[in-house]
Amino acid sequence: IDMTSRERAELCFPQLLNSSCRKTMRPHSVSMLIYIILSCISLFTVTLNLLVIISISHFKHLHSPTNLLLLSLAVSDCFVGLLVVFQILLLDGCWYFGDLMCVLYYIFDYVITSASIGTMVLISVDRYVAICYPLHYPSKVTLQRAKICVALCWICAALCHCLILKDNLKQLGTYNSCAGECVIVLHYVAGYVDLFLSFIGPVTVIIGLYVRVFVVAVSQARALRSDITAFTPQGSLNVAVKKSEMKAARTLGVVVVVFLICLCPYFCVTLTGQDVLLNSTSMAFVICLFYFNSLLNPLIYALFYPWFRKSIKLIITLQILRSDSCDAQIM
Which CATH number is 77's domain given? Predict the structure, then answer.
C-alpha cells in the first residue's frame, strides 16, 4: 500500500494511473532554491520594466524615436517576467492548464521573443543612422516612423508564429505522450524558417550594423579631439551633439551585447540539437540566462541613463500624480 501511495504521489494526475506523466523529483532544498530565484527574477523583471514603461509613456521629454524602441523592449521584457511565473508553477514538470493553454503559452513565448529580437534590430538601425548619417537622422528617423516600425515588428511576430504553430492549435494535445505534458511540434521546414527569422537573420544584421557603428564611432572620436580645439559656438554645439549620440550608441551597444550573450546559448543549443543531450540542470541554466536578460536591460538603463534614475525617483515619491508632472524636465 505504501508503494502504491508513493507512486501515486509521483504522478501529475494520480487519478489517471495509466496515462499520467511522472513529476520531476528533486530534493526539497533544491526546489525551494529554484523557486526563490525564479520568483525574484519574475518580481524584479516586471517591476523594473514597468518603471521603464511608465517613465517613457508619462514624461513628454522622453518621447523620442530611440526611447520608443526602449519602450517596446521594456514591454516584451515585462511579459517575459510574467512568463517566468509559469516556470515557477512548472517546477515539478507537470502542466495543469490544459492543451489549449499549452499551445497559447508557446505562441505567446515565441511572439515575445521574436518581438524582442526585432526591437533589437530596430535599435541597431536607429544607432546606425544616428552615428553614420547624423545630418539625415532627424528627417529619416521620426517618432511616427518609429511607431509604425514597432507596430509592424509586433504584428509580424504574432502572424508569423500563429502560422508556424497553427497545426498545434488544430490538433490539441496530439503530441503529448502522457497527461500533464506540454509539447508542441514544429514542421521541419517551419522550424528552420523560424530559426532564421528569429535568430540567424536578426543577429547577423545586428552584428553587421554595430561593427559599422563601432568603426565610424572610432573615427568620430578622433575627429572630436580636433573639434574640441575650436572655440566657436557652432563647434561646441557639434561636439555636444556628437558626444550625446556616441554615449547613446555606447549604452545601447551594451544592451545589444548583453542581449546576445544571454540569448545565444539558448539558440545555439536549439540549433545544434544539443537540448536532448544536456541534463536538466544545464538546460535550466540556459533557459534562466535567457529570461535573466529581461531583468538586466532596465539595470543597464539605471546605470547609464540619468533620466531613468530621475524618473524612478519621481515615480516612487508619487510626484507623477501631479497634473503638470508629464512636462517635468527629465533629460
Answer: 1.20.1070.10
Instruction: Please choose, from the candidates 282, 274, 331, 277, the residue with its C-alpha nearest in 3D space to the C-alpha of residue 307.
Output: 331
Question: Is 22 in contact with 12 (CB distance < 8 Å)?
Answer: yes
pLDDT, position 147: 95
pLDDT digits 0-9 by tens, 246-267: 666 677 678 778 888 887 777 7
Q: What's the 3-state SS for the chain? A: CHHHHHHHHCECCCCCCCCECECCCCCHHHHHHHHHHHHHHHHHHHHHHHHHHHHHHHCHHHCCHHHHHHHHHHHHHHHHHHHHHHHHHCCCCCCCCHHHHHHHHHHHHHHHHHHHHHHHHHHHHHHHHHHHCCCCHHHHCCHHHHHHHHHHHHHHHHHHHHHHCHHHHHCCCCCCCCECCCCCCCCHHHHHHHHHHHHHHHHHHHHHHHHHHHHHHHHHHHHHHHHHCCCCHHHHHHHHHHHHHHHHHHHHHHHHHHHHHHHHHHHHHHHHCHHHCCCHHHHHHHHHHHHHHHHHHHHHHHHHCHHHHHHHHHHHCCHHHCCCHHHCCCC
Give the per-residue pLDDT at 224.
64
pTM: 0.83
Cell of residue 185, nine digits: 511540434
Range of the domain at 172: 2-327
Handedness of CA 100, 73, 199, 140 (dihedral sign): positive
Query: What is the grid cell recorded at 124?
Result: 541597431
Domain count, the chain: 1
